[in-house]
Amino acid sequence: MKHVMSLQRFSFEKILNGSKKIDVRLFDEKRQMIRPNDLIEFVCRELDERLMCVVKAFLVFDTADNMVDVLPPSLFGYDNREEIRVRLRRLFPKEAQLKYGVMGIIIECLDRGGAGRYREGNGIEDEVNVPVGRQSSRVKDGAAEKVRVRQMIEQEEFFNQGRE
User: Fold this and answer.
1) In CATH, what number is assigned to the domain containing residue 114?
2) Other beta carbons less than 10 A from residue 125's beta carbon
C-alpha cells in the first residue's frame, strides 16, 4: 500500500541525505493502516518535490518522550535527545499523544542517489516489492523495548555491511 504524507523541508532533506531514518507521527486512524513494506511518498511543498521510502518497521509509544528515551538520537538525525523532545512537543500536543500514542516509522529511502527524489508527474511506480520481516510493537515497558530496538539496530547494521 502507498501512503502520501507531507514533510517540512528540514525533515525531507534529512531523510534524503540518510541522517533521518525514522518519521514520527501520531498513531491515529490513518497511521494505523501503515504496515511493513508499505511505501510512503513524502511531499515537500516548499521544494515542490517528492521522495519515495519503504516502511521497514514501526514502533508505537504512549508518548513522544518515551520514544526519545528508548531510541537512539541518530535515528532521528540528531545527537541531542532534548532537541528531539522539544521538536516533537511542538508537533504533537500532549493530549493528542495520550489519545492516540506516537508512531515511529522506520523508513529507508528507495534511492539516495536522486531517483527517489522527484517532482510531481515524473512517474515513480506505486508499488515496490521489498521483503522485510519486521513487526510492530506497542511500547509499555521502556527497558525491555530498549533491548529489542538495540538488537534490531545491530541486525540492520550487520545486513547493511554487505550492501556497502
Assistant:
1) 2.30.130.30
2) 9
